[in-house]
Amino acid sequence: MKIAFVVLAACAAAVATPAINQIRPVSNRPGRFLSLPNPQKCANRPKQFSFRGHNYFFSGHVPELANRKVDWLDGRNICREYCMDLVSLETQEENNMIFRLIQQNDVPYIWTSGRLCDFKGCENRSDLEPKNVYGWFWSANREKMAPTNQRPNGWGYNPWSSTGHKKQRQPDNAEFDINGTSESCLSVLNNVYNDGIAWHDVACYHEKPIVCEDSEELLNYVASTNRGLRL
Fold this sequence. Notes:
Distance between the termini: 29 Å
Order of helices and strands: HEEHEHEHEEHEEEH
Number of helices: 6
Region (Disordered): 149-171
Oligomer: single chain
Keywords: Disulfide bond, Signal
Domain C-type lectin: 51-213
Radius of gyration: 17 Å
Largest sheet: 5 strands, antiparallel
Structural class: alpha+beta
Strand content: 15-25%
InterPro entries: C-type_lectin-like, C-type_lectin-like/link_sf, C-type_lectin_CS, CTDL_fold
Signal peptide: 1-16
């Protein structure tokens, strides 16, 4: 099932170091939008590992990105310039692959393309209520996620953490109670709450490293508008 919308505007980003910030920093970057792909970057995108025909890279292993942490929208835009997007963890095998990357490289957290449908266009949608259960989707391909209180179809476990800042199952929107900021983006955290590697909802303004995954939509677009370019 697909949700028919694209996130164009910036919507805040996720997790502090390691706990939730008490005060959200004031943004001086209004009106940000999704970036268009750069054909040359697409042709020369890092291809560090692959899964089912998609290439991936972890920003910490790319020299020009190695020391950068970015908010959720900037993460998407970095990936999109390479004809990629933030990783979408749609199968247990793909999720396990990314969990191993995090474990083996002692990565504290990463952004995924996971997003809560809590912005304009998501109002009055009974199929998305309650939002914390039914309102999550992968922004990279607009695929709706399984309900957060269930194991995804074909999985042997629920990847959402059983705990967090409020010591309750994720997603818990904990930062909203602290500074009024919704936890609208999905991050994978590495044992931040003594819970192993697991999914957490996080406010989108926090800064993290990223894992990018090939976007068939962007690759097809660049291929059709740049004849002869090897992707």
